[in-house]
Write a structure and sequence with these properties.
alpha+beta, Arc Repressor Mutant, subunit A, D-Maltodextrin-Binding Protein, domain 2, 3 domains, two-stranded antiparallel sheet, 9 helices, globular
């Protein structure tokens, strides 16, 4: 058994296809297939079920894959420890962000990150919360920026900044003349929300819990920009995070933006990383820039 064979097995588990796994591992399909068979012979149990155009893990195979992932994460971490002992703020860092934050925060912080951490190469990814956490756990990401919740699992966390929610209204709406709104003011309104899987959907529902606004059952948006356009066309109202209404997004379309009266509902943005990560120094350095920028823009 060797690390190469474990990487082959994990790639096969991720792709569920011998050809794609071989391509991912930069080997021929017969080579990868032979090494998986060799690993099965060594362990004495079948790890995968081979069917035409379909590969599934056996029960023992699924358990072996999970252990293999942990082993490979630790091996990669050892390599990083040796590399980063010379310069902890150099090399690559894989950073994931939620879709309701990435388009609004990254343009603000990217120039500052390049200036303050010139030797660090950031690889940026955008996923919904559940996928971010899965990829962080599996070692596909080094850190994740998202709205903090109660269950952080086995991750280290650091709060970065608080972001208020605001109400987006169609032009000429009855509430547009008010300086601020209470949740009860939204009674009877059509509340447009993101599709399931976005944490902002549940946060918006919680923020509007004291109102009798109703959600149309035939509409779910895939992005904040879709929500913004739908509100601008008069289809209903929505809640937006504050950063989505600042800078160039303040005049991107024509919804009327009104804040909530105190206490203002919102979300706490933070960064997560694995407790075993060898990239803690780089993550903390990135977090310093994110925190400073976020607090300045939402304060």
């Amino acid at each position: 058994m060797n690390l190469r064979d474990l990487r082959y097995l994990v790639a096969l588990a991720d792709t569920r296809h011998f050809g794609r796994a071989a391509e991912q591992c930069h080997v021929s399909q017969p080579t990868l297939s032979a090494q998986i068979k060799k690993l099965e012979d060594q362990l004495g149990v079948p790890l995968v079920e081979r069917q035409p155009r379909n590969v599934t893990l056996t029960g023992p195979g699924a358990e072996v894959v999970e252990r293999a992932r942990r082993i490979l994460i630790e091996v990669d971490a050892m390599t990083e420890v040796a590399k980063l002992a010379r310069d902890p703020l150099a090399g690559s860092l894989r950073l994931g962000l939620i879709p309701t934050l990435a388009p609004y925060l990254l343009p603000l912080v990217a120039p500052k990150l390049r200036k303050e951490l010139p030797r660090l190469r950031l690889h940026l990814y955008e996923y919904q919360t559940a996928e971010l956490l899965r990829r962080l756990k599996d070692g596909d990401l080094d850190a994740a920026v998202l709205a903090l919740g109660d269950d952080l699992g086995a991750f280290e966390s650091r709060p970065l900044f608080d972001e208020n929610f605001v109400v987006a209204l169609p032009p000429g709406h009855r509430l547009a003349t008010r300086n601020s709104l209470k949740p009860q003011d939204l009674d009877g309104e059509t509340l447009l929300l993101l599709e399931d899987g976005h944490c902002l959907r549940e946060q918006a529902l919680a923020a509007c819990g004291a109102s009798r606004a109703h959600e149309p059952q035939d509409f779910r948006a895939t992005s904040l920009e879709t929500l913004r356009q739908m509100v601008g066309s008069g289809m209903g109202i929505t809640l937006l995070p504050e950063l989505a209404t600042r800078g160039p997004f303040a005049s991107a379309t024509n919804p009327v933006i009104r804040p909530f009266a105190r206490p203002q509902p919102g979300r706490r943005i933070g960064i997560l990383w694995r407790r075993s990560s060898a990239r803690r120094a780089a993550v903390e350095a990135v977090a310093d820039v994110l925190e400073k920028t976020g607090r300045h823009r939402t304060g």
